[in-house]
Write a structure and sequence with these properties.
Elements (H helix, E strand, L loop, with lengths): L7 H8 L2 E5 L12 H14 L4 E4 L11 H15 L5 E5 L5 H13 L4 E5 L10 H14 L3 E6 L1 H4 L5 H7 L5 E6 L3 H11 L4 E3 L3 H11 L3 E5 L1 H4 L7 H10 L3 H9 L2 H9 L6 H11 L16 H13 L6
Parallel strand pairs: 1-2, 1-8, 2-3, 3-4, 4-5, 5-6, 6-7
Amino acid sequence: MKPSKDGAKARARAELRGIWAATLTPFRPDLSVDEEGWRRNLRHWYGTLGIRGLFVNGKQGEFGSMTVVERKRTAEVAAEEAKPYGAGVMVSCSDQSLDTVIELAKHAQSIGAGTIVVHTPLLYFGAHTDHTVYEYYRHIAEQVDIGVVLWNQPPDCGYMISPELCARMAEIQNVVAIKYSVPRETYARLTRLAGECLIVSTSNEEEWLENILELGWQVYLCSTPPYLLQTAADRRMHEYTELGFKGEAKKARAVSASLDSVRRALKTTRPPGKAAAHQKYWQELLGQAGGPVRRPLLGLTDAEKQVTRSAFEACGLKRG
């Protein structure tokens, strides 16, 4: 059935639930996309870990170093692999070229993705006014019938869109959600302000449980913890999420707290400026496809890998 703008918010309310993850793109040693490894990761994430949906080709996925052809192909494979599991796909169409954003958005709709996500653009000469940003998203939303997800990470674009502007953009028929990487008091204010018009989420896994319990959030959207903190034998993030949805706060908090050693191992071994390379190496330690990063990103040194491996082996994550 062809999607329609007037049903976009209801579709998003039904689909954007539970744990979604932002994907890392595996590359081979020659830096080509590792499609075999990509498929293997997708099946592990969807099937073994039960992740409800994936945010594909985001900044974690190094979209800035990928061609449009590569971005389309990785999205196609993600959509194909999601079908047997009834899982969701959200395609990042972020780009500095608006023509590329729209090309990728239309492609995402054509392959059956439920939503697209677009980061706030990098703007110059003080152009990041509310009117500029509103018109940017209004124009993009006009081009497709599927849901559009806003994405604002101020350190990367240089400005924060206010809760009031977000709420105004939520009035656009097919703007359905936001990944809002801002302080908790700011996204909590937007949650109260937007109500049912906009699904609000952020990437901070450590705040996810309290956001379920205190703010009534329905989706974790999205970063890498769902497949870096979990294994086939250890799905504690899933466990505390489900307990949180059931209102079993004490049990949920206890399970979440038990992951602190894993969180510390990830955080304390991550070299400055090497987040993607570090997470890919952690993937490899878990048996997932990771591979190198593309320039301008830098890979880990042998010493950095050894520190990470030692912390990984001691963190208490069950790998059975």
